[in-house]
Amino acid sequence: MANTETVKNAEKLVERTMKGNDASHDAWHIWRVRDLALSLAREEGLSSNPDSLEVVELAALLHDIDDYKYLRDPSEEKIVENFLEEEGVDDIKKAKILAIIKGMGFKDEIAGVANGGFSPEFGVVQDADRLDAIGAIGIARCFTFGGSRNRVLHDPAILRRSDISKEQYMKKEEQTTVNHFHEKLLKLKDLMKTKAGRNRAERRHRFMEEYLKELYEEWDGRA
User: Fold this and answer.
1) What letter would DSSP give residue 181?
2) Cβ(177)–Cβ(146) below 8 Å
3) pLDDT value at residue 74
């Protein structure tokens, strides 16, 4: 585990900076990702290294504070960096934490940003975040976010975008919440970086597939 005082301060920072977010990206999301990341770290054999666990826990706690979807002021982009500096986190750990946070986004992966040399800490934090985006929790979060942006639930006339660029993914054009499953969520299982993450993703992925099958049948009046 990370330094207790630093973790407590990170938790306070999460509660303070994310309290205005919708429930898809609130503090509960952070707590789940932190717990998942530490669990995956143990499965991946990182528990014997306190420094690795410190990097994992702090990166998991801080990973969404600078999320571009919720930035209210350009000055917020430095919140995490300033926090680590103020907490006296040493330069090596700070660099690892920032590298994880800056490199774990789906938008960067579809843009072809190389992460083939990712660290074990990066793998467990990114996998934890992606696990929280799929399965039962992922479905709930997807519809919560879509509702917060007044997106159409489903419209068969709006074609799915299976292969999209970073620019298309970030562009605020008309899309449906259901289409987001095909744009991103159903792809995450195959993008897991750790064995532990892949094992957990299988079950959550199957749940989403079954859910979508039922949704389409009900939408068409076949069920």
Assistant:
1) H
2) yes
3) 56
Q: Is 49 helix (H, G, I), strand (E, B) or coil?
A: coil
Question: How far from each other are the two terminal CA atoms of the chain, in whole angstroms?
Answer: 49
Cβ neighbours of 107 (radius 10 Å)? 16
Q: What is the pLDDT of residue 116?
A: 52
Residue listed under structure tokens 């992460």: 115
Q: Using CA atoms, how far apart are residues 198 and 146, in angstroms rounded to an integer?
A: 26
According to the model, what pLDDT value does residue 115 have? 55
Enter the tokens of residue 209.
């597939």
| Contact call for residues 97 and 59 (beta carbons, < 8 A) | yes
What is the rounded CA–CA span in Å between residue 215 and residue 156? 12
**Residue 167: is its pLDDT beyond 80?**
no
pLDDT in tens, 95-104: 999 999 999 8
pLDDT at 223: 75
The predicted model scores a pTM of: 0.90
Here the tokens at position 82 are 């300033």
Q: Are 25 and 71 in contact (CB under 8 A)?
A: no
CA contacts within 13 A on the Cβ side of 212: 20
3-class secondary structure per residue, 105-127: CHHHHHCCCCCCCCCHHHHHHHH
Structure tokens at 20: 């205005």
Strands (E), 67-203: none
Q: Are 96 and 53 spatial neighbours (Cβ–Cβ below 8 Å)?
A: no
